What does this fold into?
Amino acid sequence: MTAVTATTPDAFRPAMHYAARDTWLNDPNGLIFHDGLYHLYYQNNPEGSVWGNMSWGHATSADLVTWTEHPVAIACDEQEEIYSGSIIFDRHNTSGFGTGSRPPLVAVYTSAFKPASEHKGVQAQSLAYSLDGGYTWTKYADNPVLNRGSSEFRDPKVFRYESDAERYWVMVAVEAQDFKVVLYSSPDLKNWELLSTFGPANATGGVWECPDLFPVPVDGDPENLKWVLTVNLNPGGPNSGSAGQYFVGDFDGVTFTSSSTVTEGAQDPDKLCEYQWLDWGRDYYAAVSFSDVPDGRRLMIAWMNNWQYAIEIPTAPWRSPMSLVREVSLQNVDGNPRLVQHVAQELTSLPAGNPPFTASPGEIAEGKHILAGAAGSVQRIEASLAPGTAEEFGLIVRGHGTRGTRIGIRPAEGRIVVDRRESGQTAFHESFASIDSAPIQPTANSYEVTIYVDQCSVEVFAQGGQVTLTELIFPNSTSTDVSVYASGGAATINSLTITQYA
Ligand code: FRU
It folds into this structure.
């Protein structure tokens, strides 16, 4: 973790989240665990702190907590920008880029061709390979390897499909403006054949981007595998702007069949709440999963920002953090498999800076109550709260005076809200000051909520990880109070623990 004090010029720099040293980043790319390290590549402008000169930045971590930034891995040139994509370990050297004893890592990325290129205006899929474990990359001389002549064909995620009978590479990518995921197969990463398409379905309020497709056991049962197709869309999220949705279903090596489609074709605006969302907050976009994680864990990370205001957020000289790394699993909920998310155990087992703060169980009387001894800017809050007569109750974090970020339960509405209207700097964009919400149901008459606060963000995990809300905030460094509150009546603390980091 990077220690940050209030006097550091870039005081919003997170302690537990990755942000580039002094440049812009957006989507995570090429996520892979390889030779004992997690590799995080990302959309990066090596020249500045707004979007442009798209190249792949690079960082590595042994523990998902401390990240080391490396030189740009794949750089744009006069012909192409390097848009999002993925990396696979080609262990059998199917591509021929390595040797039997030195198999390559292969990056599959979108070439967004510039006016100087013979392919100008086209987005097509290209390859680069690394023989030194992911630090230096060579672009394939015969790029692009998959060109549909489209200007909106991007974000390839490639994985190895293996059944008893066959094995081959599968690519999922998007035709962004058609709200379609396109699936291709290849024996060697160079020659691709169309398998099938999926969509439009459920949310189509904005272009579809950055898809992913992976198998997950339901309730941990390896005999009951379901496939999860994630699709990010911009705009059109449940609280406006960028967001990610997912579908659960089956994949037979050719076609993905969804069992969680609510609407086919164009979305029904009244059904937005019935679609499955990766996160209900404003700042969780372009989420994709790591390849080759040991023990079959499925780990995901997202860009913690929203295209509505991304280039205006008040951080300098860097701009945009990544989310925390999340482990996702499937749980049967009322007979339907649903994605459940928890912060990766590497982060939850971090040593705390101080002994944890605990509040005694008891009533939250109407009003706001500062918890003496709980203040902090980098903390995990684990709360179990029971409703009473209050219309709304919950926690206020990064508070000072009347300011703070409110995370509240409204039992009658069945909603959890994150209110960042008084969260600090909000005026940099008209849509930033917002009150955002997600559906929530109590378990045995109580609400279990875990909140990660880290300098410029709150990530809320509720209802056992079925509901998450991720939001950026830009409070003063002196706004560190934590309070509980109840309005229109009282509520109850069953338990409340706050672990301080940094
Ligand atoms: C998503 C996205 C991708 C594209 C990349 C360009 O945020 O628009 O579709 O590949 O960003 O930076």
